[in-house]
Amino acid sequence: MSWVLAGLAAWALGWWANTRLAALPRSRATRLAVPALFGLTLIVVWECLVRGLEVPGVLLPPPSQIATRFAASTHILWEDFVQTAIKGALTGYVLGCGAAFLTAIAVDRSGFLKRGLLPVGNFVAALPIIGTAPILVMWFGFDWQSKAAVVVVMVFFPMLVNTVQGLSDTDAMQRDLMRTYGASYWQSLLKLRLPAAMPFIFNGLKIATTLALIGAIVAEFFGSPIRGMGFRISTSVGQLSMDLVWAEIVVAALAGSGFYGGVALIEKAVTFWHPSQRGRA
Amino acid sequence: MRNLIPILTVVATIFALWYAGAVVLNAPWAYDKAKRAEVTLSFSELVADTWSQEKPKLPAPHQVAVEVWKTTGEMVQNGRAFSKRSLLYHAWITFSSTMLGFVLGTGLGIALAVGIVYNRTMDMSVMPWVIASQTIPILAIAPMIIVVLNAVGISGLLPKAMISMYLSFFPVVVGMVKGLRSPSPMQLDQMRTWNASAAQTFWRLRLPSSMPYLFTSLKVAMAASLVGAIVGELPTGAVAGLGARLLTGSYYGQTIQIWSALFMAATLAALLVGLIGLMQRMTLRRMGMLR
Lengths: 281, 291
Prior knowledge:
- The structure holds 2 protein chains of 2 kinds.
- Chain A is 80% helix and 0% strand.
- Chain A is an all-alpha fold.
- Chain B is an all-alpha fold.
- The chains are: A mainly alpha, B mainly alpha.
- At the A-B interface, helix 1, helix 2, helix 5, helix 6 and helix 9 of A face helix 1, helix 6, helix 7, helix 11 and helix 12 of B.
């Protein structure tokens, strides 16, 4: 009972502190402190409630147990991370986004293709492409190649649609200016249209980061060698060792956020001129 | 209409590539069979064989179409539209958990968005976590959520719907926050000069002006919700639903079954997203917002 009360007290304290912090003028410090405090409060409340209500560890282990399990099995987690995130997701991400980018540039030269491909691409991007995972696993075998293939298919269309949209984001005046300079197709592509397309391209790249990890992990449910995050999650669920599952989820979350954050940082460096980036100090 | 011919060209190209791919991918097996039967295949025989194998690596489009018809239209004609072998039955299972998850996710999303717009603390503390929540590959946790909820005694539709909900609430939150903040300061000032209460401002200004944003995010949410439902069906022991069809198909190497389930899922996605598009057009036209 005291654990439950402690949890409620922690929640009240955390929220109260956050309300005070949020009332302060917005600065870099408060913008980081408020969400951090909120997350911390959630973890403390989780720990207290699990202990207080005596939730069996099979259902929901407390964070402390997950942390110890995480520390104890770093080598397994690392092996899984390399198999799924680096070999599967990252390879597929680079291949898929690269292919989509080149396709977009090729398509962009022909208005006919663009008008045909954009609606089809938009349509395909809304389909449950993850369903092709069993087929690709059948074609490319159980190892990471099939996972990379799933990722390629998943990231291709969102990236294609975004890049094509970005490439047509220049207005007539800017294009005319390039023409008065006597710029060739490649010059105006490299110096005007690609830079102008960067916000869209990075939007696609950011969407693709999450899709890549999801694709790689879900593809492992259809068959994998005896390592990998998806494999570990599905077998550990079968063995009811939930702490390992949660440790794996922490790895997935860290990998996902790191991946996304990395792309966002590059975006910040490349598109520093865009209003959405300029507004924030 | 101007786009019709380009679109048809692209679609026709895709089908041509598909047929060609079927020939290339299925050829080894066809040659293998021919070698054992000690006959040599002419090109036309090869093509005919690769397009009509029992368990091809890549089934030709017409094989998938026949399988889809066999498991939907023919079953309806025989009056067994909802037997367990009918794809309509499986699509219905997936559809129901998609819808439940979608409704829950939309509700949660709108509630969070209202909280975020009206409460500064929530804006600063919850919003970053909403964004962070999507960098976590939630689908990876799907099997666990289902097993855990089963252990608590919740089974059937709800666990799958929870996964759909998690995937679909995010676009709604982001879109609605943007939409509810879209009225200009001038419009808000106008409400203030009319001495409108907070509730009146919400119902008469903020909510109506958020509608275009809401519908756009609903489309994304619906597609995400369907993906969630399909993946949620994978670990349930493959009983029913389009995801289960995919899984059993991959266990027994029934490629045609996998492709027909995929085709069904694509149709379902197109129908659901199209329906929201239709609602969007009708609502916005009545509100006078359609350009």
